[in-house]
Amino acid sequence: xxxxxxxxxxxxxxxxxxVAVDMLDQGKNxxxxxxxxxxxxxxxxxxxxxxxxxxxxxxxxxxxxxxxLIRCVNGLNKxxxxxxxxxxxxTLIDLATCDWSTLHNLRTERISMVFQQFALMPWRTVRDNxxxxxxxxxxPKNKRHQIxxxxxxxxxxxxWADKFPRELSGGMQQRVxxxxxxxxxxxxxxxxxxxxxxxxxxxxxxxxxxxxxxKDLKKTIIFVSHDLDEALKLGNLIxxxxxxxxVQIGSPEDIVSNPVNEYVAQFVASMNPLKxxxxxxxxxxxxxxENDDRKTNSKIIDPKNQTICTLDxxxxxxxxxxxxxxxxMISFKEDLDLKxxxxxxxxxxxxxxxxxxxxxINFVVGLPLxxxxxxxxxxxxxxxxxxxxxxxxxxxxxKSMV
Amino acid sequence: MNWTPDFLLEKIPFGKWxxxxxxxxxxxxxxxxxxxxxxxxxVIQGTIMSMAKVPPLILIVLxxxxxxxxxxKWVLTIGVAGAMLLIxxxxxxxxxxxxxxxxxxxxxxxxxxxxPLGIAAAHRKWLFTAIRPVLDLMQTIPTFVYLIPTxxxxxxxxxxxxxxxxxxxxxxxxxxxxxGVTSVPESLIDAGKAFGASKRQLLWKVELPHAMxxxxxxxxxCIMLSLSMVVIAALVGADGLGKPVVRAxxxxxxxxxxxxxxxxxxxxxxxxxxxxxPEGKEYIGx
Lengths: 402, 286
What we know:
The complex is a heterodimer of chains A (402) and B (286). Chain A is built from 16 helices and 20 strands. Chain A has helices at 17-25, 30-37, 66-73, 100-110, 126-130, 132-136, 141-154, 170-183, 200-217, 228-234, 252-257, 262-269, 273-276, 279-282, 355-365, 384-391; strands spanning 4-13, 40-50, 55-59, 81-88, 91-94, 111-114, 188-192, 220-225, 237-242, 245-250, 284-285, 290-291, 298-302, 307-311, 317-322, 325-327, 329-331, 346-348, 369-372, 378-382. The longest helix of chain A is centred in the middle third of the chain and has 18 residues, at 200-217. By secondary structure, chain B is mostly helical. Chain B is 82% helix and 0% strand. The radius of gyration of chain B is 22 Å and the shape is globular. The interface between A and B is medium-sized, with 31 and 22 residues.
C-alpha cells in the first residue's frame, strides 16, 4: 500500500479554476486556457503511487509543474481536482479535502520539507533554525535542545550550532535545512530542488550524503529535480513531467532504456551514464548469452577470447575459464584496490555496482565482468560492447531489464 | 462670453462642511473631549514633573549608560554626555524634558496604533488601499490647518500638541511596518507553514522578526518626525523647546532663537545616534 498516492491531481492557479477544469475536460490545452481565462494549469491529471521508503523524483524543466505538484503534499498548494491520499496511522487522509487541524498534524508530525533557496530564518542561529518545527509544535525547550544536537550531529554541523546562516556556505546551509526537516522525525520528506542552488561538486557531495542518510533513515522521499543525473542517482521511481503532465513514470533503468518520447529522450541523451548507471542497466542479460556447445550449463561471455562461465543447476556461477584455463575470481567491493588487481582476473559485479567501477575494472583486467545476484546466480555480463554502446546512448531499447 | 457651465460656477461648500462637522463635535461631545484632554494633560505633566525631580546630572549619567549599553562605543557615550551638558549649561533643561516627554508620548501612541495597523494592512490588500490616501493626506496637509480644530476640541496645552504630532508622525510606523511585513520572502512563509505554523505563529515567529529592522527604522523616523513638530506644537500651547523659539520669533530675539534651536538640534542628534540600529545587528541579506 502506498504512503503517498496522487490520484488524477489537477492544480490550477488563477481567478476561476472551475472554469479551467471544464475547459480541460473539453480537451483544451493549457496555453488556450491561459489565453482565454488567465487560469494557469500547473498540473494536470497527475497519478503517482509512492511506496514506503522509496525516493520518488519528479523531474522536468522549469514550468513543468513539478514544484506545484510536490507542494500539494503538505498543502502549500491547493488541489483543484483529484485526490492526494496520505496513509497516516491506519487511516487515509485526503489532502484535497482535509481540514486545517488535520493538515496541521500532518505538517508537524508526518511531513517535512527542504527548500531550494534553503529558506532559513536569517535572524535565528543554526540551532534555533533546526528547532523551528519542534518549537512550532510546542516541544519543551530541554527536549528540543537534545533533538537538535542529535540532528546537527547527523549532518555533521554540531560545531556550528551557534552561528548564523549567513556565516555558513551554501552547502552547509542546506545541511541545516535538512537537519531542520529531520528534526520533527516526520517520515515523509519533501525536497524541492534542494541541491539546485549549489555548486556541482557540493551538489554531488550532498547527494551522496543523502543516499548514506537514507540507508539508515528509510524515509519516504519525494524529490524535485531538473537534472536527470540527479534523478537517476537518487530515485527508485522517476516521474518525468512536461507541461503539467506526467509523461513517463518508472524505474531509472526504465527511463534510460525506454524513453517514451523525444522530450524524455533528450534528457537521457544529455546525461552522464558513468555517474548514474549501475551494472543492472548496463549489462547484457544472461538469457541473450550463447551457450557453449561442448558443455552444459555454460555461457560464453567473451566469444573472441573464449571466456566461458560454468554454472550449476540453479544458474549459480561456479568458475570461469579463459581459453580453456581456469582463472581466479574475486567479487567487487567498494574498497577494492584496482592498482593491485592482476591482469586477467575475473571480477564479479552485482546489479548495484556503479558503471564507473565496471568500466575501470574492465580496463584494468581486460576481461568482461559477470554480474551475479545475491545468491550467486549469473544474471548478465558487462563487457566492452555493453560499455561502449551505453556511452554512445545506443542501449538496446527493447532489451528486458532486471 | 461664459464658457463654464453654471453648475461648475456654483461653489462646493467644502469648508462649510468641515466646519459643520467640527462644530458638531464640539457642541455634542465637548464634555467628553475635555475629560480626555484633561486626563492626558495630567499624565504628561506628571511624567515631566517626576523627570524634573531627578537631578539633571543623574539623568545624564543614566542616558550615557543606556547609550553605552546599546552601542558599546566610548566616543558616542562621551558625545552624548557633552551634548546634554551643553543643554544644561544653556539653561534649557526643563524645556528639554518637556519636549522629550511630548516626543515619548507621541511615539508611544503612534507605535501602539501604527504597528498593528501596518500589520493588518500588510495582510489585507483592501485595507492598505483604503488607508493609503489617508496616510498621504496626513503627511501632506499643512499642519496649521488641523491645528485649528484640535485647538477647538482639546483646548490649549500639551494634548492638542500631542494630537497634531501624532497625526503627522503616525504614517511612518504604519508605512514601514507594512513594508517590513510585505517584504518577507515567500520562501520563509512557506517554510513556516510547512512546519505547521498557525497564522499567529507565522506572524510572531517569521513575519515580525524579519520585519523588525524595518519596523525599528519606522520607530526612529517617527521620533524624528515628532521632534520636528515641537515648534508647531508650541503654537497650540504645548510646553517644550518650541516655546522659546516661538517667543524669540515674536520678539525678534536672535540669541534666544538660536539657543533654543541648538537645543532642539542636539536632542535630535542624540536621539538619532542612540536609537540607530547598531551595525552588524541587521540580519537581512544573510
